[in-house]
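Protocol step 4 of 5: obtain the predicted structure for the target chain.
Materials: sequence only (see below). No template structures provided, no constraints applied. The aim of this step is simply to have a reference model before the mutagenesis design in step 5. Sequence pasted as it appears in the construct record:
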Amino acid sequence: MNMTHAPNQPDRPVAAVVLAAGKGTRMEGQRPKVAYEVNGRAMVQWVVDALRAAGVQRVLLVVGYGADEVRSIFHGDDAIEYVVQAEQLGTGHAVLCCREALDEFDGDLVVLAGDGPLIRADTIDTLLSTHRQTGAAATLATSVIDDPTGYGRIVRDECGRFQAIVEHKNASDDIRAIHEVYPSYACFDSLAMMDSLANLPADDISGEYYLTEVPARLHADGAIVEVVDAVPAEDVLSINTPDQLAEVDAILRARQQTPATEASP
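Step 4 output (structure tokens):
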């Protein structure tokens, strides 16, 4: 099993998986969630643009609900690769659906949610550079926020090293007091990740397969898992409701008007 790679390999191949298969169940509409627009463009377009600005040219888009509408967003963009997740069985399952498309790929794989349009190219740059400099099997970009309710918490050991991501619903009071969260920005050694996913058990309650379990499994197997606090708190905002959509829309409009004052990781 390829659990890690040597550090300082800036020329390793890089690709990205963007998770875009879900329905916006609380968005008061029937569209796929990533197709809703912020600042005049579908939220998933912002994610793809940030990846490309960071030098990630190979992008796999995992589609499911409303797949045709998501494809239509990128009409004429022949560089996008599509992978169908016929059943939405969790984030781990979504990435595992890409296994055949990535069959001969041995490199760094950035995994992002398609409904996170506030992602910045600088954050992806930091994520990738940390991953490569440390020779990690997995690197997580995290954020420290005032109100971490609902987010997966980053649990570190007494030396400050990664231990696990614990979902809010599964967290004890002590863990819920942690303000460092995982906003779904990660980079993996592709082979190590796929090996781990292939043996990932389903969640006992939901029956889904969660990508957030993979870093802890890699850590338990002796692989390097790095954590870098690289995400500005503003960028962690989730979009699950029309009000949150409007809030992110306003942030992107303000950012576009004053690019010189953008926060950087």
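Step 4 remarks: The first strand starts at residue 14 and ends at 20. The domain at 14-138+184-226+238-257 is CATH 3.90.550.10 (Spore Coat Polysaccharide Biosynthesis Protein SpsA; Chain A).
Proceed to step 5.
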